[in-house]
Amino acid sequence: MRPYLGVLLLCSSTLLSSSGRPVFTKSDLAYYADAAVVNFVRPGLVLKITGASVAADGTIQAQFTLTDPQGLPLDRAGVTTPGAVSTSFVASYIPKGQTDYISLIARAATGAVSGTVNQPATDSGGSYTQTGDGQYTYTFAAKAPAGFDATQTVSIGMWASRDLSQFQLGTNAANAVLTFVPGGGAPVDVHDVVHTAACNKCHDPLGAHGGVRREVALCVMCHNPGGNNGNLTVQTVDPDTGNSIDFKVLIHKIHMGSSLPSVQSGHPYQIIGFNNSVNDFSGVVYPADARNCQMCHENGAPPQGGVWPAGAKSADPNPPVQGDWWLSHPSRAACGSCHDNVNFATGQNHANLPQIDDNLCTSCHIPQGELPFDVSILGAHTIPTFAPGLPGVAFTLVSVSNGAAGQSPTVTFTVNDKSGKPLNLSDLNSLSLTLAGPTADYSNVFTESALKASGSGGTYTYTFQHQVPAGAAGTWSVGIEGYRNVTLLPGTTTQQTVRDAGANQVIDFSVDGSTVAPHPVEVKVANCNQCHYSLSAHGGLRNQTQYCILCHNPNGSDQSRRPASAAPPQSIDLPVLIHRIHTGDQAPAGDQLTPFVVYGFGGSQNDFSDVLFPGDLRDCAKCHVNGSEELPLPATRMQVQNPRAFYSPMGPTSAACTACHTSKAAAAHTQLMTSPTLGESCEVCHGTDADFSVDQVHARSL
Question: Where exactly are the structural domains of the chain?
Answer without folding.
Answer: 394-528, 552-697
